[in-house]
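Hey, can you fold this?
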Amino acid sequence: MSSSSPIRLAIHGGAGDLDAVNSDTRAHRAALHAIAGEGLALLRSGAGSLDAVELMVQRLEECPLFNAGVGAVLNRDGQVELDAAIMDGRDRACGAVTGVQRAKYPVRLARAVMERSPHVMFMGAGADALNRELGLEEVAPEYFITEERFHQLKEARAKGVIVLDHDSAFGTVGAVARDAQGHLAAATSTGGLTNKHPGRVGDTPIIGAGTFADDQTAAVSCTGTGECFIRAGFGFAVDARLRYTPADLATACAEQLDAVRGYGGRGGCIAIDRHGLLALPFNSRAMYRAWVDADGVIGVAVGED
């Protein structure tokens, strides 16, 4: 692919304080590389950015290595509560779901909310009912539960703590993309926090916090301490900095991560601006990520590598 190609993409699988140097991340890296490859092939075939981010997040939801879909963490009652959102940069159309337990692909349901309902967000039983009404794939809640997540919950209960997803097995997933027409899109999906109080919602399904896209500015997907990303209004704040100040994408994202840190949070984001520039910053020790820049080559990294 020539350097003049407008196609760009990035995906993430969570950010946190993993020791990237001494941890075995080969399986995660391989999964990220393969999923980014699927997204790249789709964009090269002429598909739009919205289709690409949905596909890549769906593949991440299928992968038990990450905290979304299969392999999602469990709440205090041993249940999954899945959140997802998607946003189209062409017109800010968006859809989100929170606390779903039966939708096989929460990101697909989020897109259906956007395209097949007059609303933006559905929650819990209502979201699962909509999934059924629209004929999307449905599974029993046990479908999502893995042995590793069950043991993580037992340990968290024994210690009496709520474990951030990025401090155990990584993590919230997301994707951003710029297609051949220059359109932007973003999608994010998560299982939340291990041992969280049932009903807790983080930044993932909050449009303008953990998920955002506008062709005039940037596409952003976040991972980390959700409450702090909400307080920072992360996605909208990046948009505002690009729209109303001289800041470039890297500066805008870095300044907002400073705001997250100021609220006591940590994590990272993946972002693509309207010019095709990428930013993948994080203020924790690591963030699982893969990307395709102007060179058309898939890059994968975990720590500062």
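Oh, and this one too while you're at it.
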Amino acid sequence: MKRICVFAGSNTGNHPNYAAQARRLGNEMAVRGIGLVYGGSKIGLMGELADAVLQQGGEVIGVMPQGLFTGEMAHRGLTDFIVVKDMHERKAKMGSLADGYIALPGGFGTFEEWFEVLSWAQLGIHQKPVALLNIEHYYTPIMQLMEQSIEAGFALPGHHHLVVCEDDVVQLLEKMAAYQRPQLGNKWSELEAKV
């Protein structure tokens, strides 16, 4: 993988390990020669991650809509900073630059970005790994929700294999490097019943 797009909170959260693991991910990505694509902020987990990559001499590309410069505090020390017109263009640009996706802890924006790329993986729009760094079990409820959707018949049993979920940075990156999209059947169960 040449670059990974990381979705992360623009706040650091209330547990010190969130920021510590964001920095660890940044260090490990840089050591492995993996560039970072992210939202372009200098604050929160976004800033912790970007600074860690930069401190190791790694590549960091920030992508930010013009209207978020004040709220997200644009990072001016990046390898490249790309200005786009809106959130849709931001996500499309980040996706075009990245070979995989990771979500660090974050809020509604992080959830929305991550679920979109997971949905696209499910539909076969891309073949890239979609991962969660499960710091302090932050994403355990998301994994449980996914299992519930399978049990309730809204997703197929194999769909949970679309997600790489680890609480260790090294294991996460190694699983992403080895990732092969699972072979999935028809997503629409009713179509099979009517054929």
